[in-house]
Amino acid sequence: MDLRAELPLRQQITDLERAAEHIRRARRILVVGCSGGGKSTLSLKIAERFGLSYISLDRDVRWLPGWMQRDRVEQRNIIASRILEDRWIMDGTSPSTFDIRLPRTEVVVWVRMPRLLCIWGAISRWAKWIGRTRPEMAPGCIEKVDWEFLRFIWTFEEKFAPRIVAGIAEHGPDLPVLQLKSRRQMRELLDLLGRPA
To answer: Does the 12-190 domain belong in CATH 3.65.10.10?
Structure first.
């Protein structure tokens, strides 16, 4: 992990029980991280548990059928509209839109798994959905894995973690941020969230 890409300690939630309290109270949650790390699975479970609207940047904003990318201006317009909703969980990193998303967010969950785990997650997801479109992806975007995607995952921490840290510093400097760095932490958080408040 690139230690230069770390959040200020005052923003980090390190205690999972405290993190669960933040998530229970939050009306708007942003989940970011590398592909294959489990962002969508976590987001869907939290959305279901607390009755939040689930917004996937991949499904609802970025992609059109056949892996055609939607125009960037249109993407921003969709995000600008969706963030006005009162209660949501948004799954997707895209630091270029932090300027409009973070001011409406109450807590950030950064799924920051080791890259080998993310590669395994992406490959096993592909194997599960081979020839089909998974629910959190835009219709007509058949699940795929190629070298470009694997390279993106392998270099994510080096290339994108500093952009995430910088974006949070600029557009959400007072937001609490939970970093989940293992599957065990993710399971523990979901267990805590599943208990009665």
So the answer is: no
